[in-house]
Write a structure and sequence with these properties.
This protein is of the alpha/beta class and 227 residues long. It is built from 10 helices and 8 strands. Helix content is 39%, strand content 18%. The chain has an 8-stranded parallel sheet with strand order 7-6-5-4-3-2-1-8. It is globular and about 50 Å long. The two termini are 23 Å apart.
């Protein structure tokens, strides 16, 4: 099947849900991203800063770029001029660096707090207590150039659907607690980013608003040279 066919499949899957598709572009060359764009994709998710910075000028200006991989504070400056949403905010330090760099470009960058719910130590993210400490801080309240619009999480890589469902349900619970306690009067706080190629249907059942899909659209990744 073509990239356009695969995108149509996911558009049909998401029809009638609140979810949008983030097309994950990791390791895929610009030519294939252009194919996805021509087929209607507008939200592109990239894991690595270097790849995002290289690809962004090669694509139309109306692409909504989401950084979905781990972000080091010293690399924020490279994406601050154009990134739409940083889905992987996992510390107050990173949030404040995003605020600082976005201010230099007179922009407001959207962000999602990333939570750790998987039974895998390799995955990063906040606990609920970490997030409440961050959201209760004066430094966060004084940030003017970063706007939190929701949360993100990655489930355990397992064939145990019940476990994955529990983890997505936990994420939804965290979202609802934070929404009620800190963002009740902020309609922009509405994104629950969870679900990928293998588990997106479980995520949709738990209320995901952003699913992140790469391999099911582009096929197997090429870990060699990226154009």
């Amino acid at each position: 099947m073509s990239i356009a066919d695969n995108l149509r499949f996911f558009q049909n899957e998401l029809h009638g849900t609140p979810a949008r598709l983030v097309v994950v572009t990791k390791t895929h060359p610009v030519e294939r991203l252009r194919e996805a764009y021509e087929a209607g994709a507008r939200l592109f998710g990239e894991n690595k800063v270097q790849e995002m910075v290289a690809k962004q000028p090669e694509l139309p200006a109306d692409v909504e770029w989401h950084l979905i991989g781990h972000l080091q504070t010293n690399k924020v400056k490279y994406v601050a001029p154009f990134v739409h949403t940083i889905q992987s905010i996992d510390s107050l330090r990173l949030l404040l660096e995003i605020d600082k760099q976005a201010a230099r470009h007179s922009r407001v960058v959207r962000g999602l707090l990333q939570f750790h719910v998987a039974r895998e130590e390799t995955k990063s993210g906040l606990s609920l207590a970490d997030a409440e400490e961050l959201l209760g801080s004066e430094a966060f309240r004084n940030a003017r150039h970063v706007q939190l619009t929701g949360i993100m999480g990655i489930a355990t890589n397992t064939d145990d659907a019940a476990q994955v469902q529990r983890e997505f349900r936990e994420l939804r619970g965290i979202f609802e607690k934070l929404k009620a306690r800190y963002f009740a009067d902020e309609p922009a706080f509405r994104e629950l980013s969870m679900g990928m190629s293998a588990d997106y249907r479980l995520a949709l059942a738990e209320g995901s608003t952003l699913i992140r899909v790469g391999s099911a659209i582009f096929g197997a990744r090429n870990y060699g040279k990226v154009d």
